[in-house]
Amino acid sequence: MSENEGTVTLASTTYRVQGDSRVLSVVTSGASYSPGTPVGQAIENVFGNVQVLFGAIVLLAGFATIGGTTAAFAQAVHARGRTIGIHRATGATDRQVLWMLVRDAVVIALPSTLVGVLIAYVALRVLEFSGLLVVFGIRLSIPAVPWLVAMVIVGGLLLSMTSVVAGALGFLRAPPTRLLRLRE
Fold first, then answer.
1. What's the number of CA atoms in the CB half-sphere (13 Å) around residue 34?
2. Which residue among 9, 24, 84, 152 is least crowded, i.e. fewest CB within 10 A of its CB?
């Protein structure tokens, strides 16, 4: 008995696939496309370069992160307005007050940034292992480049320190007597 016994072929068609320079660039760039996903082709036809689309999404997420971080640290500085007033009333210079606030921001931001990077790395590896990094028919490959990870950590710290300084400027310009009337 053969394996094909009992099956009937109803039709057979042969396709010849031709392409232009885009096909060659996809093959040479090492990108891997998942077969059978017309969504990927539709997105590429509508938006063109999918990397530009992802870049725009990452940029928007970055702006949202910057805004959220700045607001959180500004609120934290505002909550310490009376304390800032006490320091200033007892003779602390603006530089000393800023140094105190920036030091507090680093103490909070450094462990948070390290934990966030670690969680992001583990989440990406889990998604990659499970095959869920296929978006619009394109398989994403995200290498853990050490200099990029270091830039993320340094960027997070700089963002935190800048946010604290931006939130503190109003308190440093106000007279200490007005700050002492604030409630914490």
1. 15
2. 9
Mean pLDDT by 10 residues, the chain (184 residues): 60 65 53 53 64 77 84 84 86 91 90 90 87 74 85 90 88 82 68
| Residue 127: alpha-carbon gap to chain centroid | 16
Of 66, 86, 98, 68, the C-alpha closest to 170 is 98
Task: Give the gyration radius of the chain's Cα atoms.
Answer: 27
Is the C-alpha dihedral spanning 111, 58, 146, 128 positive or negative?
Answer: positive
Residue 172 identity? L
Residue type, 115: V
Residues 159 and 110: their CA atoms lie apart, in Å, by: 11
